[in-house]
Specification:
The complex is a heterodimer. Helix content of chain A is about 75%, strand content about 0%. Chain A contains eight helices and no strands. Chain A is globular, with a radius of gyration of 17 Å. By secondary structure, chain B is mostly helical. Chain B is built from eight helices and two strands; from the N terminus they run αααααααββα. Chain B is globular. The chains are: A mainly alpha, B mainly alpha.
C-alpha cells in the first residue's frame, strides 16, 4: 500500500513539472506535437529511471562509505550526462527521425532539472532500493503524462484565435498555470 | 566595426535574446526562486559567475575536446564551478547562503549555462564568450528580478521586507506554482507585445 502512495504521490500530487518546477525547458520546448512529447517522455523516463538507480547505488555504496558526500552533485551529473550521451548515440543509430525532431533538446536532457532533482530527492528522502525504483517510475510517468496532455492542448491552441503577442510560449505558460491549478486539486487524493 | 560586434553580443543577451522572456531557457530556477526579490538577485549573481567562468573555460578547451564526449566534459566543468560557488558563499556570505541553500545545486542544471556552452562558447573565442556570458547573465538577473517583483508584491503585499500594502489584500496564489506560470506567461506576452510593436514601427518606417 505504501508503495502505491509513493507512486501516486510522485506521479500526480508532487508532479515534477507542475508543482516542483523541474524539467520546464523540455516541457515548453518539445511539447508542440503529441508524438514528439511522447518521444521526449520516453527518453526522459529511461534516463530518470536508470539515473536514479545508479545515483542511489553510487551514493549508498561509494560516496557514504568514503565520506565524500560533498561530491554528490558532480558524481550524479556525471552519471546523468553519460547516460544521455548513450541515449543520443542509441537514437542516432536506431531512430533517426526521432533523433532529428528532438534536436537541441536531446543534449539538454542532461540539464533537465527533473533528472538531477529526482536523484537529489531520493538521497535526501533516504529511500531504500524498492522505494527508489517506485518513486523514479512515478516521477517519470507523471512527467510523460503532463507532457502528453500539454502537447495535445497545444495542438488545439495552434488553430485557436489567440492575440498575436501571446502566441507560442506565453499562452503555453498560461495554459500550464491552469493545469497547475487542476493538479493543485489532486493534492487531496493521497 | 569590431567594437560594434562586441557590443551587439553583449546587448543581445540582455534584450534581443533575453534568456527568460525570449529564449525560454533556465525556466526551472526562474519559477522556483522568484518568490522573493532577494532570492532572485542572489540567484542571478550566482548564475552570472558560473556562466562567465564556464563560457571562458569551455571556449579555451573547445578545440581539444572530442565531439562525442563534449556534454559530459562541459557539465563536469559546470558542476565543479557550482560546487566552488557553494563553498565560496558558505565561507563569505553565510546569510545569503542559508537563505537560498536549496537553489544553489540547481544552478548546475540551469539550461541557460549548458545552452550557451553548446550554442556559443564551443564555437567562439575566449573574449567573445566572456562578453556573451556577462550579457546573458545580466539578462537572466534582470528577468528574474522582474518576475520576482510581481510575484512578491502581489503574493505577499511586501517587497524586500517592506510592507507595501496590507497582507490581507494580497493574492497568496501568486507565491504558488499557479502564480509562477501565470506571472511568467503574462510577462512573456508583454515582452512579445513590445517587440511586435517595435517591429511594426520599423516596417512602417521602411515602407
Amino acid at each position: 500500500m505504501s508503495f502505491f502512495v509513493i507512486f501516486m504521490g510522485a506521479a500526480l500530487v508532487h508532479n515534477i513539472i507542475l508543482t516542483q518546477f523541474l524539467g520546464i525547458c523540455p516541457f515548453l520546448g518539445v511539447s508542440k506535437k503529441a508524438d514528439q512529447a511522447i518521444g521526449m517522455g520516453a527518453a526522459v523516463t529511461f534516463v530518470i529511471f536508470l539515473a536514479s538507480l545508479m545515483a542511489y547505488c553510487l551514493n549508498t555504496y561509494v560516496l557514504i562509505p568514503l565520506n565524500i558526500e560533498y561530491l554528490q552533485t558532480i558524481a550524479f551529473i556525471l552519471v546523468i550526462a553519460s547516460l544521455v550521451q548513450f541515449v543520443e548515440m542509441f537514437l542516432k543509430k536506431f531512430s533517426v527521425g526521432l533523433y532529428k525532431s528532438l534536436g537541441v533538446f536531446l543534449p539538454l536532457i542532461t540539464t533537465n532539472c527533473a533528472v538531477l532533482g529526482t536523484a537529489n530527492n531520493i538521497v535526501t528522502k533516504g529511500f531504500g532500493l524498492m522505494e527508489t525504483i517506485i518513486y523514479s517510475l512515478g516521477i517519470s510517468i507523471g512527467f510523460t503524462l503532463v507532457m502528453f496532455v500539454f502537447a495535445t492542448i497545444r495542438e488545439r491552441l495552434e488553430i485557436a484565435p489567440i492575440a498575436r503577442s501571446f502566441k507560442g510560449n506565453p499562452i503555453a505558460l498560461i495554459t500550464a498555470a491552469i493545469m497547475a491549478l487542476a493538479f493543485f486539486g489532486i493534492g487531496g487524493l493521497v | 566595426m569590431k567594437k560594434n560586434e562586441i557590443l551587439n553580443i553583449f546587448t543581445s543577451g540582455i534584450f534581443k535574446e533575453n534568456p527568460i522572456f525570449v529564449l525560454f531557457l533556465g525556466m526551472c530556477p526562474t519559477l522556483g526562486v522568484t518568490t522573493s526579490v532577494v532570492n532572485a538577485i542572489g540567484m542571478g549573481i550566482g548564475v552570472i559567475f558560473v556562466l562567465l567562468m564556464s563560457n571562458v573555460i569551455i571556449s579555451l578547451i573547445r578545440n581539444i575536446v572530442m565531439d562525442e564526449i563534449r556534454i559530459p566534459v562541459f557539465i563536469v566543468i559546470i558542476a565543479s564551478l557550482v560546487t566552488l560557488l557553494q563553498m565560496f558563499m558558505q565561507a563569505y556570505t553565510l546569510e545569503l547562503y542559508n537563505s537560498m541553500k536549496v537553489f544553489i545545486p540547481l544552478i548546475t542544471v540551469n539550461c541557460i549555462i549548458l545552452g550557451r556552452a553548446e550554442a556559443f562558447a564551443s564555437k567562439n573565442g575566449v573574449f567573445k564568450s566572456a562578453v556573451d556570458g556577462i550579457g546573458m547573465g545580466i539578462g537572466f538577473l534582470l528577468g528574474l528580478v522582474v518576475v520576482a517583483f510581481f510575484r512578491e508584491l502581489l503574493g505577499t503585499g511586501a517587497l524586500m521586507g517592506l510592507q507595501v500594502f496590507p497582507a490581507q489584500f494580497a493574492i497568496p496564489i501568486f507565491t504558488s506554482a499557479v502564480g509562477a506560470f501565470l506571472t511568467l506567461g503574462t510577462l512573456a506576452g508583454i515582452a512579445m507585445l513590445i517587440s511586435n510593436l517595435r517591429k511594426d514601427k520599423a516596417e512602417k518606417g521602411v515602407a
